[in-house]
Protein backbone atom coordinates (compact mmCIF):
# COMPACT_ATOMS: atom_id res chain seq x y z
CA UNK A 1 0.00 0.00 0.00
CA UNK A 2 1.60 3.21 -1.18
CA UNK A 3 0.39 6.21 0.78
CA UNK A 4 1.48 9.74 0.00
CA UNK A 5 3.74 11.19 2.67
CA UNK A 6 1.13 13.83 3.50
CA UNK A 7 -1.17 11.13 4.91
CA UNK A 8 1.34 9.83 7.43
CA UNK A 9 0.78 12.59 10.07
CA UNK A 10 -2.99 12.15 9.74
CA UNK A 11 -2.70 8.40 10.27
CA UNK A 12 -0.39 8.94 13.27
CA UNK A 13 -2.88 11.40 14.81
CA UNK A 14 -5.80 9.03 14.20
CA UNK A 15 -3.82 6.16 15.76
CA UNK A 16 -2.91 8.23 18.82
CA UNK A 17 -6.55 9.32 19.23
CA UNK A 18 -7.84 5.73 18.99
CA UNK A 19 -5.18 4.53 21.44
CA UNK A 20 -6.12 7.30 23.88
CA UNK A 21 -9.79 6.34 23.71
CA UNK A 22 -8.99 2.64 24.20
CA UNK A 23 -6.67 3.31 27.15
CA UNK A 24 -9.20 5.67 28.74
CA UNK A 25 -12.08 3.21 28.45
CA UNK A 26 -10.06 0.25 29.68
CA UNK A 27 -8.54 2.29 32.51
CA UNK A 28 -11.96 3.50 33.65
CA UNK A 29 -13.30 -0.04 33.55
CA UNK A 30 -10.49 -1.67 35.51
CA UNK A 31 -9.44 1.20 37.81
CA UNK A 32 -12.82 2.83 38.43
CA UNK A 33 -15.04 2.23 41.43
CA UNK A 34 -17.12 -0.92 41.45
CA UNK A 35 -20.84 -0.73 42.20
CA UNK A 36 -22.30 -3.33 44.49
CA UNK A 37 -25.53 -4.84 43.32
CA UNK A 38 -28.53 -4.60 45.55
CA UNK A 39 -31.01 -2.10 46.83
CA UNK A 40 -28.95 -0.41 49.51
CA UNK A 41 -29.40 3.18 50.61
CA UNK A 42 -26.02 4.03 49.08
CA UNK A 43 -27.21 3.17 45.56
CA UNK A 44 -30.38 5.26 45.72
CA UNK A 45 -30.66 8.52 43.79
CA UNK A 46 -29.99 11.62 45.88
CA UNK A 47 -29.54 15.20 44.72
CA UNK A 48 -28.17 17.83 47.11
CA UNK A 49 -30.17 16.57 50.07
CA UNK A 50 -33.49 16.97 48.27
CA UNK A 51 -35.66 13.85 48.09
CA UNK A 52 -36.36 12.46 44.64
CA UNK A 53 -39.68 13.42 43.07
CA UNK A 54 -41.31 11.47 40.30
CA UNK A 55 -39.89 9.04 37.82
CA UNK A 56 -36.71 9.62 35.82
CA UNK A 57 -38.40 8.10 32.75
CA UNK A 58 -40.89 10.94 32.25
CA UNK A 59 -40.73 12.36 28.73
CA UNK A 60 -39.13 15.74 28.11
CA UNK A 61 -40.67 18.57 26.19
CA UNK A 62 -39.63 18.83 22.55
CA UNK A 63 -38.30 22.32 23.34
CA UNK A 64 -35.19 20.84 24.98
CA UNK A 65 -34.33 18.94 21.84
CA UNK A 66 -35.15 21.84 19.55
CA UNK A 67 -32.93 24.09 21.63
CA UNK A 68 -30.11 21.58 21.18
CA UNK A 69 -30.72 21.53 17.41
CA UNK A 70 -30.67 25.32 17.39
CA UNK A 71 -27.36 25.40 19.26
CA UNK A 72 -25.82 22.90 16.84
CA UNK A 73 -27.04 24.94 13.88
CA UNK A 74 -25.37 28.12 15.10
CA UNK A 75 -22.25 26.26 16.18
CA UNK A 76 -21.80 24.55 12.81
CA UNK A 77 -22.53 27.80 11.03
CA UNK A 78 -19.60 29.51 12.71
CA UNK A 79 -17.28 26.56 12.15
CA UNK A 80 -17.94 26.59 8.40
CA UNK A 81 -18.05 30.35 7.92
CA UNK A 82 -14.66 31.03 9.48
CA UNK A 83 -12.51 29.31 6.79
CA UNK A 84 -14.62 30.93 4.10
CA UNK A 85 -14.18 34.37 5.66
CA UNK A 86 -10.42 33.90 5.83
CA UNK A 87 -10.02 32.63 2.24
CA UNK A 88 -13.02 34.04 0.39
CA UNK A 89 -10.93 35.55 -2.44
CA UNK A 90 -9.26 32.24 -3.21
CA UNK A 91 -12.55 30.32 -3.41
CA UNK A 92 -13.98 32.48 -6.18
CA UNK A 93 -17.49 32.03 -7.54
CA UNK A 94 -17.54 28.28 -6.89
CA UNK A 95 -16.86 28.84 -3.19
CA UNK A 96 -19.46 31.60 -3.07
CA UNK A 97 -22.11 29.28 -4.54
CA UNK A 98 -21.14 26.55 -2.05
CA UNK A 99 -21.56 29.00 0.84
CA UNK A 100 -24.92 30.13 -0.55
CA UNK A 101 -26.04 26.49 -0.68
CA UNK A 102 -24.90 26.03 2.92
CA UNK A 103 -26.72 29.15 4.04
CA UNK A 104 -29.90 27.99 2.27
CA UNK A 105 -29.76 24.63 4.07
CA UNK A 106 -28.98 26.40 7.34
CA UNK A 107 -31.99 28.70 6.99
CA UNK A 108 -34.27 25.77 6.13
CA UNK A 109 -33.27 24.10 9.40
CA UNK A 110 -33.52 27.41 11.27
CA UNK A 111 -37.06 28.04 9.99
CA UNK A 112 -38.01 24.48 10.93
CA UNK A 113 -36.92 25.11 14.52
CA UNK A 114 -38.67 28.48 14.50
CA UNK A 115 -41.90 26.95 13.13
CA UNK A 116 -41.82 24.24 15.81
CA UNK A 117 -41.83 26.98 18.46
CA UNK A 118 -38.34 26.60 19.92
CA UNK A 119 -37.87 30.36 19.88
CA UNK A 120 -41.11 31.06 21.76
CA UNK A 121 -39.78 31.02 25.30
CA UNK A 122 -43.07 32.21 26.83
CA UNK A 123 -44.96 29.00 26.01
From TrEMBL:
Oligomeric and partner information: NDH-1 is composed of 14 different subunits. Subunits NuoA, H, J, K, L, M, N constitute the membrane sector of the complex.
Transmembrane regions: 6-32, 64-84, 96-114
Record-stated family: Belongs to the complex I subunit 3 family.
Lineage of producing organism: Bacteria, Pseudomonadati, Bacteroidota, Flavobacteriia, Flavobacteriales
Protein's UniProt keywords contain Amino-acid biosynthesis: no
Gene3D superfamilies per UniProt: NADH:ubiquinone/plastoquinone oxidoreductase, chain 3
Gene (UniProt): nuoA
One Gene Ontology term, aspect cellular component: NADH dehydrogenase complex
Subcellular location: Cell membrane; Membrane
InterPro entries associated with the record: NAD(P)H_OxRDtase_bac/plastid, NADH_UbQ/plastoQ_OxRdtase_su3, NDAH_ubi_oxred_su3_sf
Major enzyme class: translocase
Coiled coil spans: none
Enzyme nomenclature, EC number: 7.1.1.-
Pfam families associated with the record: Oxidored_q4
The organism's place on the tree of life at top rank: Bacteria
GO molecular function per UniProt: NADH dehydrogenase (quinone) (non-electrogenic) activity; NADH dehydrogenase (ubiquinone) activity; quinone binding
Protein's recorded name: NADH-quinone oxidoreductase subunit A
Role according to the record: NDH-1 shuttles electrons from NADH, via FMN and iron-sulfur (Fe-S) centers, to quinones in the respiratory chain. The immediate electron acceptor for the enzyme in this species is believed to be a menaquinone. Couples the redox reaction to proton translocation (for every two electrons transferred, four hydrogen ions are translocated across the cytoplasmic membrane), and thus conserves the redox energy in a proton gradient.
Protein's organism: Chryseobacterium luteum
Catalytic activity as recorded in UniProt: a quinone + NADH + 5 H(+)(in) = a quinol + NAD(+) + 4 H(+)(out)
Membrane topology: Multi-pass membrane protein
Keywords attached to this entry: Cell membrane, Membrane, NAD, Quinone, Translocase, Transmembrane, Transmembrane helix, Transport
Amino acid sequence: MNLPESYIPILIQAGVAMAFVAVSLLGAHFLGPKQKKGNSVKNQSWECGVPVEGNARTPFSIKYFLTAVLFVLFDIEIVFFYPYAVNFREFGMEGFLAVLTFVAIFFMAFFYVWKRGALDWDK
